[in-house]
Amino acid sequence: MSVKNPFDKENEMSIGIPSLERSLFEPRALVSVLLSGGAWITAIIASIPLFSVLYGLVVRGGHRLSLEVFTELPPAGFEEGGGFGNAIVGTLVTVGFGAIISIPIGIMAAIFLAELEPDGKVAFAAKFCAKTLTGLPSILAGVFAYAMVVLTTGTYSAPAAGVALALLMLPTVVLTAEESMRMIPVNMKNAAYGMGCTRSQVIWKIVLPTALPGVLTGVMLAIARAAGETAPLLFTALFSNYWFIENGSAQVMAPIASLSVLIYNFSGMPYENQIELAWTASLVLVLMVLTFNILARVLGRKKV
Questions:
Q1: What is the CATH number for 210?
Q2: Per-residue confidence band for 97, with pLDDT thresholds at 50, 70 and 90
Q3: Any domain includes 73
Q4: Domain count along the chain
Q5: Torsion 134-135-138-143 (CA) sign
Q6: Comparing C-alpha atoms, which of 105, 112, 110 is closest to residue 199?
Q7: Residue 161, CB-side half-sphere exposure with 13 Å CA sphere
Q8: Residues 109-168: pLDDT tens digits?
Q9: Which 3-state string (H, E, C) describes 218-260?
Q10: Are 244 and 90 in contact (CB under 8 A)?
């Protein structure tokens, strides 16, 4: 004697149980398919400018990629060859100065906003200022650093560029870190308090380690933005045709090269060699920024 499976389709029909299979022509299923297709189409359209820029840079500047462009100095007007190794180093140095200034201040400010006084008037004012700074034109950051540092020291320098870039990086670090700290479950912190931990111990042992992926995401995004800035560097770092380290000593209080300013300078020259180097420098800069953005995505997905 055979026993019928209660989950067979014939049994479902015999006892009046509706089928759970989704039909494509049902209104809700049809709307879901249309919306999913529309989302894919808009995503592809939005990615077209990115891939077209990457394709153009690879075609125009990819053929000049070699060890020479990473190790040699920029050529003069009528010279052939050359590279922009000093500009790569200068970009890393200026962004490094900006990171040294903005990251500690940004994380401390985020701790204050998220843990110490989240609902106070000072926190409200600080958050309002941080959100306002996100829309600050980069050239105004350069003007500020020029007035505060360049005129005070009497020279263009990497620290002056670092101050301008830190002003642009700070709101991203603050707001991202503060949001990451607010997402930590309250029960986790209450458990630590219940075990006798002080507020400082909760912050350093619970809040910061748990929020670290989000904090690192904000740091990477801030670095990516700072690496591509040009206007602040024109007011603070200017440009240099020499290495940052000359004769074993770092030229800290002196003009310094950067990729963005080199692209700006070389793209307007009437010499084919400089124009080709500008395209190649653009490709290198885009790859650097893309790397920082990918790192931000990867770190943001990690769980502590």
A1: 1.10.3720.10
A2: very high
A3: no
A4: 1
A5: negative
A6: 112
A7: 31
A8: 999 888 888 778 888 888 888 888 888 899 999 999 999 999 999 999 999 999 999 999
A9: HHHHHHHHHHCCCHHHHHHCCCCCCCCEECCEECCCCCCCCHH
A10: yes
pLDDT for position 293: 82
- Enumerate long-range contacts of 276-281, CB under 8 Å, 24 or more apart: 276/60, 276/61, 276/64, 277/64, 277/69, 277/74, 277/75, 277/82, 277/83, 277/84, 278/61, 279/57, 279/60, 279/61, 279/64, 280/61, 280/62, 280/64, 280/65, 280/69, 280/84, 281/61, 281/84, 281/87
Task: Supply the pLDDT for residue 105.
Answer: 93
- Do the beta carbons of residue 146 and residue 233 sit within 8 Å? no
Q: Report yes or no on 237 lying in a domain.
A: yes
Q: Tell the residue number behind the tokens 């002080």, with chain if given.
A: 198
Band (pLDDT 50/70/90 cuts) for residue 256 is very high
Whole domain around residue 284: which residue ranges? 82-301
* Residue 160 included in any domain: yes
How many other C-beta atoms lie within 10 A of the C-beta of residue 218?
27
Determine which of 14-28, 129-143, 203-217 has the lowest per-residue pLDDT on average: 14-28
Asked, for residue 40, whether it belongs to a domain, the answer is: no
